[in-house]
Amino acid sequence: MTVTRKLYTLLCGPTLLNYTIPIVMAYLVTGTIAQKYIGLYQATHIFFAAPVVWVGDIIPLPGMPIFLGLIFINLTFKLVFKSPWTMRNSGIILTHISVLLLLLGGLFTALFSSEGYIALGEGEQKSIISDYHMREFVIMDEQGRTLTTLNHKDIKAHRALNLDKQFPFAIDIHEACENCKIVARENKTEHHIGMAQHMQLETAPPKKNNEENMAGLVFQVTYDDTHEIFVSLEDIPKYPTVSVEGKTYKFALHRQHRRLPFSITLLAFKKDIHPGTTMAKAYQSTVLIRDGDMQWESIISMNEPLRYKGYTFFQSSFIKTPQGDVSVLAAVWNVGRSFPYISGLTMCIGLIVHLFMRGRSPKKKPKNGKDKHA
Amino acid sequence: MPRFFILLSALYLFFTIPAQAQDQDIVQLDTSYIARLPILHEGRIKPLDSFARIQLRTFSGKESGALAWLIETLFDPVRAETRPVLKIINPEILTILHLERRKNKLYSYKEISEVLRTKQKMILSIVGADEADWSVQQRELITLQKNAISLQNLLGSLTLILPLSTTLPDSLPAPFKPYTRRTLSFIETLELQDILQATLKDIIAEKDHNIETYTPAEQALAHLSFTLSLLQETRRNSDVFKVIPTDNGGWLSPWESLSASENTQLKYWQDLSAAYYGSDMKTWDDTARNLYIHVTSNTAQIRPKALNAEYYYNLYPPFFISFIACLIGMTALITSLFRSNALQMAAASTALLGSFICQLCGIALRIFILDRPPVSTLYETILFASLITTLYALIAYRRDKKILWLWLGLSLAIFLHILGFSHNLNGDSFVMLIAVLNTNFWLTTHVLCITAGYAFCALTSILAHYTLIKSRWNGGGIPDNTLFKSTLTAALLALFFATIGTVLGGIWADQSWGRFWGWDPKENGALLIVLWLIWIIHGRISGQMKQHAVLCGFSYLSVILALSWFGVNLLGVGLHAYGFMDSALWSLGLFIGIESVFVIAVTLPFLKRITPHA
C-alpha cells in the first residue's frame, strides 16, 4: 500500500478518531483539574487554546486545537469519501455534519470573536467596551485624546519603549507586572513624582481569576535632561502627566478599550432579591441606545440579552458602590454565534433519525451467538 | 392489584409510626395548624414544620420530633437551653472545648455557649485567617459557633411575649398597680418603661446603686428594669423567626415587628404562649387555627395548598417510602435465589412499580411546592435520574419479562436513593434559585436532558457490569449477545441525551453569559461523557474494540459519570457555583478505586486468554 493510500485510509477511517479522542479527553481532564490551581483563564490558554503545549518549558506537544483540527479533517474525509449517503445512514450523516458545524463555529469564535464589558451607573453613557483580560498603556494629550497605545503584555521591565518620533521624550520601564504588589518606597529621590514618591511595585503571583490581577508600571520619562519616575496602576483615575515643549502628555494604564459604533445609556437598574436573603432572584437594566439620529429604549435581563449590529449585551452582574448599584453588561461580538444553534438542531434531528432507523432496521440473526467483531 | 394495596398499606403503617413518635419529655400539643403556619426562611415561604426540621437537622443531624422541639425552643427557652441538640462528631473539638464524650454526640446550648465563651480569642483568630487555610477542626469549630448563634437567635424569638421571672409586689406606686401580682411579659411592659426608668432614676438619686439598701418593691423594679434592658439588648436582633407578613410584601420576626406598625399578629402568639404555660389545649388549638386562617387569608404571596403539600411531603416522605419499597423488592429477589416462585417476582415487580409511583408523586409534589421544573440542584438531579432508571427498568421488564431488569432497576434505585439521602443531610432541599437559573424553559430542556443522560449512563454501566460478571461466571466466554445489545441501546440513549443536553447547555450559556463554550468544569464534565461514549461506540463500529473491551469501556462509564456529575463540583471553580460541594472526595476516590479494580479484574483473564494468539 502506497503512502498516499495509507494516508487516505487513515483520514477516511475511524482509526485516527479512536486515537485522537483519548488525547482530547486527557487534555480535558488535565485542563479542568488545573483550573483549581491556576484559574480558568490560564488553564484555557495552556490546555485548550494553545496549539503547542510545553511540558516543563522543554518538550513541545501538539495542543488541543491540533487534535480538534485532525478530528475535523478526519470527519470531512469520511463524509465526502467514505460515508454511504443512504436513507438508512442519514441520521449518522446529519450528526457528523452537525459536529463539523460545531467545530467550524468553534474555529470562527476563536479567530474572530471578542468579549468585554461595560459598567454603567444610572444615567451614565458609554460607547466603549473594556476587555476582561487585556491591558493597555496609553499616551494621551491634554484633552484626553489617545496619541498611542501599547499592549501591556509587550512592555517589559528594564527596557525602553519604542515610541514614535512625534514624542519629545523617551520612556524607560523600571517595573512591569501583570499583578502588582504595592510596597512602600524607601529610596525616594527628587525624580520620583506623584504616587512614585511613596510606593514601588513588585511582581506578585498571578491570581486565579485574571480579572482580579492589578497590572502596573513604574516608568521613567526623560526629556531635556529631566528624569521623572512615575507609577501607573490599572484604572487609577489620576494619570501621571508631563509637560514638554509647551504640550501636556498624560499616561494611563487600563483594560483594553474597543469603541462601539453606538452608545448605551443606563436609564434604570433593578434587582430583585429573594426575600430575607442576599441572593439575587433577577436583575435587569433599562438602557437607551443612541445610534446617529436614532435612539430607543431596551431592557436587558438575565437570559434576555440585547442584540444590535453584531454585538450582544448580557446582564452579567452588578457592583454595589456608595453612589448606587453599577450594572455590568457583558458585551460579545461573535461571527460564529449562529453555528451552535444550527449544529444543535442538526445534531438533534440526526440522532433522532439514527435511533429511529436503528429501531426499524431488520434484526440480523447472530451466528452461533457470536458478535461479528468478537 | 390487591397485593399492591397490601404493600402500600404496610408501607403506610411503617412510616406513620416513626413520624408520630416524639420525645416523651417534650410537651405534647396538637400541631396540625402550627405545623402549617407559613414562615419566611432562606428566601422561601415554607410551613413551620419544614423550618423546624431544617433547623434541628442542621444542629443535630436528625429531624424526628422537630416541631415539638421548636415549640419548646420558642415557648420555653430556659428549658430548651438544656436540651442536648448541638452535635459534635469530631473528638478533637471535644478536647479543645474540654467536653466529655457522649454516645449520642449531642450537647445542650447551655453547655456549648459556656465553653465557647472561653474560646472567643481562638475563634476570632480563625475567622481572621483565610477560610481556604482552615483545618478540618477549625472549620468544625466555626460551624459549631455558627450553630450556637443560630440556636441563640431562635431561643430568643418569642421572648418579648413570654412570662418574665419578675413579679411586681402590691406596695408599688399607682402607675404600677395594673402590673402587680401577676406574670408580665416584655411587650406588656412597653408602656411602663418610661415610668419605670423615671422611678428608678429617683431611687438611684436617693439611694445610689447599692441595691441592698432598696426596699423589696424597689429591688423588684430594679430587677425588672435589668431584665428588660438585657432582653432588649440581646434579643432584639432575633430575626430568624420571620412569621409576620407585612402589607408591603416583607416578613418580620416578632422582635422586628415591635418597631414596625405591623404587630397585630403578636396577640395570637401571646395567646399561644398563655395556652402553652396554662396547658390549655383548647385555646392552643383555637388560636393556632385562627392564626393560620388569619395569615393565609390576608397574605397574597402565600399559597396555602403548597404549604399543605409540603406538610404532607414531610409527613410521608415519598423518596424514603420509595426506598423502603425498593428494599422490600430486593429482599424478594434475594429470597428467590434460594427458592424461586411467582409470588417473589410479583412482589419485586410491584415494589419497583410502587417505588416508581412514590418517586413520581415526590417529584410532582416538588414541582407544585416550588412552582418550577423539578431539577435545579445536585440533589434533584439524583432524584430525577432515579426516576428515569426505574421507569426504564419497568418498561424493559414489561417488554422482556426478564428478572434481570428487576435486579438492575432495584439495585440502581437503592444506590441512587442512598446517594440522594447523602446529599440531603443539611439545610433545605427546596432551595431558591440564583438569577441565572431562574428560567423555566432552560431548566426543563437542558437540565432534564442532561440528567436523563446521566440516568442512561448509569444504566449502561450497570448493564455492562452485569454482562461482564455473567461472562466471567460462565467461565469467561463470549458475553451474552442480547445483554450486549441492551447495553448498546442504553449507551446510545445516554449519548443522545448527554449530547443534546450538552448542546442545549451551550446555547443557554450563550443566552445568559454570552458564550457557547467556556471550558467551565461542569461543561467539560458533560463533554467528557459525550467523548467517552463516542470513543467506545466508534471503537465498536470500527472493530478496533472487541466486545469485551467495549463492555469494559461501558462499565468504566460509571467513573466518567461520577467525575462529571459530582467530581467537578469538588473543584469549587467555574460559573456553575450552585453545584459546589467540599466533601465526598474520599467517597469518590473509593468508588473510582473499586471500579478500576473491577475493570482490571474482568479484563486480565481475557487478556491472558488472547495473548498466545496475538
Strand content of chain A: 35-45%
H/I helix tally of chain B? 24
Q: What is the CA-atom radius of gyration of chain A, in angstroms?
A: 28 Å
Alpha carbon gap, first and last residue of chain A: 27 Å
Helix-strand makeup class of chain B: mainly alpha
Largest interface: A-B, 65 and 69 residues
Radius of gyration from the alpha-carbon trace of chain B, in angstroms: 30 Å
* Approximate shape of chain B: elongated
Give the amount of beta strand of chain B, in percent. under 5%
Q: Would you kindly provide a brief summary of this structure?
A:
The complex is a heterodimer of chains A (about 375) and B (about 625). With about 375 residues, chain A is of the alpha+beta class.
Question: Can you walk me through this structure?
Answer:
The complex is a heterodimer of chains A (374) and B (614). Chain A is built from 5 helices and 17 strands. Chain A has 374 residues and is α+β, with helices and mostly antiparallel strands. Chain A folds into 3 domains: 3-112 and 337-360, no CATH class; 114-127 and 258-333, no CATH class; 133-257, no CATH class. In chain A, the strands form 4 sheets. In chain A, strands 3, 4, 5, 11, 12, 13, 14, 15, 16 and 17 form a 10-stranded antiparallel sheet that branches. Chain A has a 3-stranded antiparallel sheet with strand order 6-9-10, with no helix packed on it. A two-stranded antiparallel ribbon of chain A has the order 1-2. In chain A, helix 1 packs across helix 3 (64-82), helix 2 (15-49) runs antiparallel to helix 3 (64-82) and helix 4 runs antiparallel to helix 5. Chain A is globular, with a radius of gyration of 28 Å. Chain B is mainly alpha-helical and 614 residues long. Chain B has 4 domains: 29-155, no CATH class; 174-298, no CATH class; 317-422; 433-614, no CATH class. Chain B has helices spanning 2-20, 48-60, 66-75, 77-80, 91-97, 109-117, 120-128, 136-155, 193-207, 216-235, 254-258, 266-277, 281-298, 304-315, 318-338, 342-370, 378-400, 403-422, 440-473, 481-512, 521-542, 547-555, 557-571, 585-610, and strands at residues 38-41, 44-47, 84-87, 106-108, 244-245, 251-252. Chain B has a two-stranded antiparallel sheet. A two-stranded antiparallel ribbon of chain B has the order 3-4. In chain B, strand 1 and strand 2 (44-47) form a beta hairpin. In chain B, helix 14 (304-315) runs antiparallel to helix 16 and helix 19 runs antiparallel to helix 20.
